[in-house]
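> call design_seq(struct)
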């Protein structure tokens, strides 16, 4: 959420930031709402001050035996007490109206983010590795063709249970997905300094608002009833660990990781990736979250991205890192790097991780602050999040990159300890 004080101080800069997002100017209308809020606050304060002053004057009038004046003052106090609830409601409503508007406006992009309308304007930063080579005449298959031929990936059974965009993994593929998640968590906790978290996957409205899934993206979420939501990513509970608290700056950055089920309605994905595991309602993901000071956040963003990249390097997967343009970046992000892994079956790169720095945008929504030992006042933390990486898509990438002409799949070396030494996944008999 944006700071209305900063908008008032530099409305032109705020509108320029919105323009980079392809949005119309909003500073003038927001300032007008803030003026109403300020006027309501002032009117309430005046009434409260007059009530307090009149109450004191009653005692003075009684001491002077001026009974008529005392009765007039009592009547005035009674009148003020009667009107105060209306003034308090007006103040709340004016503040809520401003908050509703501010909550619907995306974060401002950093100056170095490339301008653009959509994903076609994203800029490649670097590449790692090379596409795998296959025997001449062999056409690489897509992951669902491989998995179904192995007899270990069943979309029909999942459809009977839950409908479209679900899958049942069996045997060695189920274990391979589990191995990927365990490998990622071990890497991030033992080498990258993240603390493993096992968070709830049901969260309240306030948590979803804090990370900006609500209210704007309500249709993309799965409601669980009674004010609960299934998490779309572990970013939600882990970032909210700093909610309504003041963290000692000496302890920052805090680095958290979790492997959880995630749930997304994919409301706007009709017709996209209808086959396979690329875009599902339920999936596994290893998430990275950092809570940092403003001075740390940009370097922490680079570090987080490098941690996600290391997962793909250890798996031997060809990938590229791109920086998203202003027209493609997420609602809460100031800057985002996407990691795109090469999928031979599709013959193209596909996103497998997004790493974003959000500045104080989420922190303002959840009142997450930090304070140095020698500082007089607390300030908002900066939050970061990234996939470290999407487990289901990593499974897709392993299947397509490590497939063999005989239909089997070679298990990457780094995963074999998690697979009981299994070197090859073969068709079930």
């Amino acid at each position: 959420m944006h700071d209305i004080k900063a908008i008032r101080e530099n409305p032109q800069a705020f509108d320029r930031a919105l323009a980079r997002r392809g949005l119309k100017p909003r500073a003038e209308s927001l300032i007008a709402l803030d003026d109403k809020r300020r006027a309501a606050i002032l009117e309430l304060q005046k009434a409260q001050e007059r009530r307090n002053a009149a109450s004191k004057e009653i005692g003075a009038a009684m001491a002077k035996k001026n009974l008529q004046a005392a009765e007039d003052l009592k009547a005035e106090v009674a009148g003020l007490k009667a009107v105060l609830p209306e003034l308090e409601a007006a103040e709340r409503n004016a503040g809520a109206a401003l908050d509703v508007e501010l909550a619907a406006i995306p974060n401002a992009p950093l100056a170095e983010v490339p301008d653009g309308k959509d994903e076609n304007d994203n800029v490649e930063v670097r590449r790692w590795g090379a596409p795998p080579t296959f025997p001449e005449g062999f056409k690489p298959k897509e992951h669902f063709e491989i998995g179904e031929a192995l007899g270990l990936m069943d979309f029909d059974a999942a459809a009977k249970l839950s409908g479209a965009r679900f899958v049942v993994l069996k045997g060695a593929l189920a274990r391979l997905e589990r191995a990927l998640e365990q490998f990622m968590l071990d890497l991030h906790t033992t080498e990258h300094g993240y603390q493993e978290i096992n968070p709830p996957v049901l969260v309240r409205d306030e948590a979803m608002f804090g990370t900006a899934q609500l209210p704007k993206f309500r249709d993309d979420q799965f409601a669980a009833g009674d004010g609960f939501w299934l998490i779309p990513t572990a970013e939600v509970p882990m970032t909210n660990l700093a909610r309504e608290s003041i963290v000692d700056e000496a302890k920052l950055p805090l680095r958290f990781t979790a492997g959880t089920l995630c749930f997304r309605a994919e409301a706007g994905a009709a017709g996209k990736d209808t086959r396979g595991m690329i875009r599902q309602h339920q999936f596994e993901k290893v998430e990275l979250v950092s809570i940092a000071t403003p001075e740390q956040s940009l370097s922490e963003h680079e570090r987080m991205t490098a941690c996600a990249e290391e997962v793909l390097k250890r798996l031997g997967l060809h990938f590229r890192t791109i920086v998203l343009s202003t027209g493609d970046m997420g609602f809460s992000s100031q800057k985002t790097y996407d990691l795109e892994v090469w999928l031979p079956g599709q013959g193209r790169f596909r996103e497998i991780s997004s790493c974003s720095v959000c500045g104080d945008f989420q922190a303002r929504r959840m009142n997450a602050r930090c304070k140095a030992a020698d500082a007089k006042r607390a300030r908002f933390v900066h939050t970061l999040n990234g996939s470290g990486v999407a487990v289901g898509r990593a499974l897709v990438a392993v299947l397509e990159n490590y497939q063999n002409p005989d239909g089997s799949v070679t298990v990457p070396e780094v995963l074999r300890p998690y697979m009981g030494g299994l070197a090859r996944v073969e068709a079930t008999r």
